[in-house]
Design a protein that fits this description.
By secondary structure, the chain is an alpha/beta fold. It is built from 11 helices and 12 strands. It folds into 2 domains: about 180 residues, NAD(P)-binding Rossmann-like Domain (Rossmann fold, 3-Layer(aba) Sandwich), CATH 3.40.50; about 100 residues, UDP-galactose 4-epimerase, domain 1 (Alpha-Beta Complex). α4 runs parallel beside α5 and α8 crosses α11. It is globular and about 55 Å long.
């Protein structure tokens, strides 16, 4: 069925992977800055007038990817609130007015969990305990959309995204930038100091797998989702050593890595336990097929420096 879909954050890393998958629909792509390969409308979702105009011609669905990254939110919590929460609130409100209970797909984050321990597996009953402004705003966004869903204003789906790879080199505003930088450093045969330990573990997903899950959320059956309307996406749990070895095998390069763990970064991005994402899997969401597949896809679809 042809849908009119609003895509925010369309010029970003994930947005540029999502938009091509929607070519059979009418797409209104938007971002504060749009690259030459993405046609759309430039604007700020924190601007009420822009949001009203954006939704003025109606919609069948919204894919909301626009967000300030965690480090930027920590540096300016007030602006983070304006963009990551007030922007969401305005967008969802205008979407409810513009369509007949439109599907609203929200890119949430595993940062809503945050207080994780390597020895304690995460499942669908793990409480939300964000340890950052960014994670708290994502948690509040999920709760707001769940309320609107119960009020029959929108059909909400919130997806908690893991670390997405491989982002452009030197990714600004992302504390997890080393998880992408390791791909490019090994591929180019250059040294890299990792701010985590070799045995540190993360949950990873290629951007193409994430984009496929976002698109799946447009048509996933309402009854397949929990009352919270939020699911933690299934992802691959990998250690830094496993990741480096897989990249090296793919590229035919010997890693030139050193490790200088930073406790805050290790705790936030490399202390992840086993993940049991049963609700998401039942609803049809999928991880990358294997670590080798993730590496090949990430290097093929990532944006190299």
């Amino acid at each position: 069925m042809l849908m009119r879909i609003i895509v925010t954050g369309a010029g970003g890393f994930l947005g540029r992977a999502v938009v091509p998958l929607l070519r059979d629909h009418e797409i209104v792509a938007t971002d504060r800055v749009l690259p030459a390969d993405v046609e759309g409308v430039v604007g700020d979702i924190a601007d009420p007038a822009f949001v009203r105009d954006l939704l003025g011609q109606g919609c069948d669905a919204v894919i909301h990817l626009a967000s300030m990254p965690g480090a930027a939110v920590a540096a300016d919590p007030a602006q983070g609130w304006a963009v990551n929460l007030d922007g969401l609130r305005m967008l969802a409100g205008e979407a409810a007015k513009a369509g007949k209970r439109p599907r609203f797909v929200y890119a949430s984050s595993i940062a809503v969990l945050d207080d994780l321990h390597p020895e304690t597996p995460v499942d669908d009953d793990t409480p939300l305990l964000p340890g950052s402004h960014y994670g708290a705003l994502k948690m509040m966004g999920e709760a707001w959309l769940a309320l609107l869903h119960r009020q029959n204003a929108v059909s909400a789906v919130s997806l908690r995204l893991p670390g997405l790879v491989a982002r452009p080199s030197g990714g600004s505003g992302f504390g997890s930038a080393f998880l992408s930088e390791i791909f490019w450093a090994i591929a180019q045969g250059r040294p890299l100091e990792m701010p985590v330990s070799p045995g540190g573990t993360s949950w990873l997903m290629s951007v193409s797998a994430a984009a496929a899950n976002i698109v799946h959320a447009l048509t996933v059956n309402d009854d397949a989702l929990p009352p919270s309307r939020a699911v933690t996406l299934p992802a691959l749990r990998v250690s830094m050593t496993e990741l480096a070895d897989a990249i090296a095998r793919h590229c035919g390069q010997e890693p030139q890595l050193t490790y200088a763990p930073v406790p805050q970064i290790e705790r936030s991005f490399a202390s992840y336990p086993d993940l049991r994402a049963a609700a998401a899997e039942v609803a049809g969401f999928r991880p990358d097929a294997s670590l080798a597949d993730l590496v090949a896809t990430a290097l093929r679809q990532g944006i190299a420096p």
